[in-house]
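Milestone M4 deliverable, item 7.
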Amino acid sequence: MTDVTTRLDRLRVALDAPALLLTNSLNIGYMAGMSGLTDFEDPHVALITPDEALLFTDSRYSETARNQAAAGGEIWQIIEFSGKRPAAEEVVMQLVERHISAAALEDTMPYRSWQNWTGRLADYALKAQASKGLVEGLRRCKDNAELEAIAAAQAITDAAFTEMLAFMQVGMTELDIASELEYRMRKLGATGLAFPSIIAAGPNGAKPHAVPSERPIAPGDFVVMDFGAAKDGYCSDMTRTVAFGDPFAEAREVYEAVLAAQAAGLEAARAGTAGADVDAAAREVIVQAGYGAYFGHGLSHGLGMLVHETPHCSPRSTDILAPGDVISMEPGIYLPGRFGVRIEDLIAITDDGIRNFTTSPKELMIL
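Output delivered:
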């Protein structure tokens, strides 16, 4: 079970304001250990003080919140908005009643929301300040419960890929494959998708974030498959590139270069290593193979409640990897108008190495 008390303790140590207001449902869900919240119309507000944790919600979500708060030890007080006054005013009144003079707001809050909250605080002579990504920083280091949720999501993703290998064939469209893949992930237990699946055949594979189309798979195509399941509030992410028929010599050469680059990145990814250095280890393999100009994105991104979080491994990254980080490992080569290859695993940084959540084979698969 998620240790909600520990999360609150860590936040209170780092908080440099008398209270913190959260409106981002992912941040609220993280702090409260609740996976049933959504961003639909932003109905949730959390107020965290040195002594209390209050979750404000409306009638659509109050039962879910109470049930999940009970599972977390009843640490959170659940307050249902009355609807008699603006929601922000109801929250600010709780600050006034507790004689709290200032509150930190999330610096990722949309501008209009920021204006609303700062205005409401000012109405009662309360000060506002930015939290400077406080909860996002806490979310970076995954605890054991989070790691196992990510492992479960990745297991679904691997299982779906295995099933798809027996299903896919020449003549199917990218959309055919994407739809079937997403259906199978849900049948295998996914509670959602980590992101819209990328199925990119032939020349479309040279577009790193291609959108599945009506293009049919043709003999000789490389097909880039980048997809992930969501399970209990956490995401997975993997990419495999498969060949439909025996590929030509350069395609094999490109595939082997990407595979070797990924192996170099996996070897370099260790606690205490700079993200830029991990990227460089993989990128140098591709450069030496003569394809450096065709690897345009960073090697890695963090992952958790969102599919893109900190830390990052890229040429510009200033992040230092630490135990508890969960990151992708996804070098690629993209030859415009021809084909692309990307291979991606999902790993966690540990005290003495890495944990690779991805079990699907990486040798070139010819269907």
